Amino acid sequence: MLKNPAAKYRPFTPVSLPNRQWPSRTISSAPVWLSTDLRDGNQSLFEPMNGERKLKLFQELVRIGFKEIEIGFPAASQIDFDFTRKLIDEGLIPEDVTLMVMTQAREDLIARTVEALRGARRAIVHLYNATAPAWRRIVFGMSVAEVMALVRHHVACLRRLTDACPQTQWVLQYSPETFNLTELEVSLQACQTAIEAWGVSEDRKIIINLPTTVENATPNVFADQIEWMHRHLAPREHIVLSVHPHNDRGSAVASAELALMAGADRVEGCLFGNGERCGNVDIVTLALNLYTQGIHPGLDFLDINGVVRIAEECTAIPVHPRHPYAGDLVFTAFSGSHQDAIRKGLAAQRPDTHWEVPYLPIDPADLGRTYDGVIRVNSQSGKGGIAFLLERERGIVLPRRMQVEFSGVVQRHADACEKEMSGGELWALFQHTYFQGLGRGDEAIRYLEHRLEDGGRRVELTVLMDGEHRTLSGQGNGPIAATVDALGLPLRIEAYEERATGTGADAQALAIVEASAPGTAGTRFGVGLSDNIVTASVWAVISAANRLAAAMAPQATLAA
Ligand SMILES: CC(=O)SCCNC(=O)CCNC(=O)[C@H](O)C(C)(C)COP(=O)(O)OP(=O)(O)OC[C@H]1O[C@@H](n2cnc3c(N)ncnc32)[C@H](O)[C@@H]1OP(=O)(O)O
Ligand SMILES: CC(C)C(=O)C(=O)O
Fold it and tell me: Which CA distances in Å does 501 have to 391, 397, 541, 544?
């Protein structure tokens, strides 16, 4: 890195637009979308797509709902030429979808482009030439006047060739390439030259497409440039004003959104931000940003995972796990406070109210994603997330103080193993913590229960104590008190809860007791799970007794 980058790099020049209107505007409807996945997205791949991959992605773009799709540069490659012909000859273009193809401002390329489109119902020819000072000087060696002559000549050439094919409805898209780096007056002059040479009218519209070919400024500067063009282009009512942002500074989405506020009608971009260098603007993000404002984007991302799969397969570029809306991890919370808030939010969310789940900007279900991965447990997780997983996967609702107790156990475990815990591992740890020392089936707890005349209970338990089976008996006003009496331990039951887990044939009774004993700080929870609620309660008391005993002397456990 240089000590003084100013010696090498120039700052961008802001636009003087004192009465700019865009900062107080909002976006209230979706723009016209153009997918350039098959052109800008394709020209930037290590290995450009073959016809088969192009067709697969084309069909997916149609399914998503794109009505304008730039399918390539037919004059540049035989694959693109053949692909264009295939779509037209085999009738693969739905009625409401229009193809766009690109060409440089060169006569031979324009002629070949028109030939590729012969017989199409409607077609957009995208003609471009660079206009910025560095390109004029370094690449083309042209003055501004010569650039205008180039535009006039080649638009006229296109007009002549397309007029000879009246069965197709022709639309010109003109892009002053490098628009964001060009003096506004020069861009305007180039666009007006194209507008005039094309003979724009009510029935002969034009798309003026303004790119940030290499993003070099903050998005507000692009918005000023767009608002300036929006005010000066004429006849504005016959012009579709389009933008084509790139992402070299990482702000393509912001550039596109501010451009829409500044007067743009249409956005060109790629799925998941694919495209040259740092990519084109990401249409998935733009569309879903609108959706979360309550505006339907007109694109269908209900099966976002399916869209990811097809895009990855066709481009061989993976979608980042943190990609907005589509990444594998974007609906996953590991951290405790987030998990707690999400769990409460999901419980409070009603189907007929506005979405208000903390930390989830969109309902994953609207993208065909499930809640399965929303909460995942590692050493950063808290009681809320752990409770959520046990509740969702096992139907076990833990009392609040038990959530605190068990999350301590989970934290120590996750810290020690330094990795994420799956739902299965969490359940295993729960069993290990609360069921340890107990037999697995109900038959293993040999206990007898008698109802006494005064309504109380008497129980007889056979337990394994210090390596020997002993039969203990006790009585009390219910099975819990009788079990405590039988154990002969100074246990005090602080709280008791019973719940059903599962439904129908799978239903089981879950009993949870919170107990204390002299000489042990705090309480311990015990859990019993059984087909029978009384059995579950007895288990729960034994579980708590074991855990209290283990806290005092680790080997003093009871087993049935
Ligand atoms: C910002 C963008 O993404 S623009 C889109 C860019 N996409 C692509 O270029 C992909 C497909 N292109 C290609 O395969 C090739 O460029 C082709 C086949 C179209 C043309 O190839 P070639 O004839 O070999 O020319 P090459 O690509 O090297 O272009 C350089 C020449 O074209 C001129 N040129 C470049 N862009 C344009 C333009 N838009 N209009 C007119 N001339 C242009 C250059 O000034 C240069 O001219 P020179 O040879 O007189 O110096
Ligand atoms: C030709 C234009 C639209 C382009 O792709 C760019 O400038 O990035």
Answer: 9, 9, 19, 20
Cβ 338 under 6 angstroms from ligand 2: no
Which two tokens mark 188? 């305007």
CATH number at residue 83: 3.20.20.70
304 and 344 in a single domain? The answer is no
Residues 183 and 278 in one domain: yes
Ligand nearest to the CA of 252: 2
Q: What is the arithmetic mean of pLDDT over 487-507?
A: 86
Same structural domain for residues 516 and 446? yes
Final residue before a domain boundary, out of 400, 434, 468: 434
Ligand in nearest proximity to the CA of 141: 1
Helix (H, G, I), strand (E, B) or coil at 459: strand
Decide if pLDDT at 444 tops 60.
Answer: no
Atom nearest to 268 CA in ligand 2 = 3
Q: Tell whether 428 and 448 lie within a shared domain.
A: no
What confidence tens digit (pLDDT) does each residue in 166-195 have? 999 999 999 999 999 999 999 999 999 999
Verify whether ligand 2 is closer than 6 Å to residue 213 (CB atom): yes
Which atom of ligand 1 is closest in space to residue 139's alpha carbon?
45
Same domain, 414 and 486: no
Question: Tokens 């104590």 appear where?
Answer: 465
Q: Report which protein residue has its CA nearest ligand 2's atom 7.
A: 213
Answer whether the bond into residue 235 is a cis peptide, omega within 30°: yes
| Buried/exposed code over 405-434 (b: 16+ C-beta within 10 A; e: otherwise) | bbbeebbebbeeeeeebebebbbebbeebb
Q: Let me know whether 449 and 429 are in one domain.
A: no
276 pocket-lining for ligand 1 (C-beta < 6 Å): yes
In the chain, the percentage of residues whose pLDDT exceeds 90 is 73
**355 residue type, one letter:** W
Q: Per-residue pLDDT tens for 384-435?
A: 889 888 988 888 889 989 999 999 999 999 889 888 888 889 999 999 999 8
Q: Residue 441: pLDDT above 50? A: no
Quote the ipTM score. 0.96
- 215 in contact with ligand 2, CB cutoff 6 A: no
358 within some domain: yes
CA of 43 to the centre of ligand 1 (A): 12
Tell me which residue range forms the domain holding 385.
336-434
Say what the pLDDT of residue 173 is. Answer: 99
Q: For residue 40, how far is its CA from the centre of ligand 1 (angstroms)?
A: 14
The reply to whether 515 falls in a domain is: yes
Domain termination residue (choose one: 434, 456, 479): 434
CA distance 515 to 396: 19
Q: How far apart are the first and last CA of the chain?
A: 71
Say if ligand 1 is within 6 A of residue 190 CB. no
**Total domain count, the chain:** 3
User: Ligand 1: which atom is nearest the Cα of residue 213?
Assistant: 1
Closest CA to 168 of 126, 98, 119: 119
Q: Give 211: exposed, middle or buried? Use CB within 10 Å, 0-12, 13-18, 19+.
A: buried
248 lines ligand 1 (CB under 6 A): no
Residue 274: the pLDDT is: 98
| Residue 23 resides in a domain | no
Could you tell me if 191 and 295 lie in one domain?
yes
- Within this chain, do residues 149 and 274 fall inside the same structural domain, yes or no? yes
In short, whether 557's Cβ falls inside 6 Å of ligand 2 is no
pLDDT (0 to 100) of residue 336: 81
Binding-site entries for Mg(2+): 40, 244, 246, 280
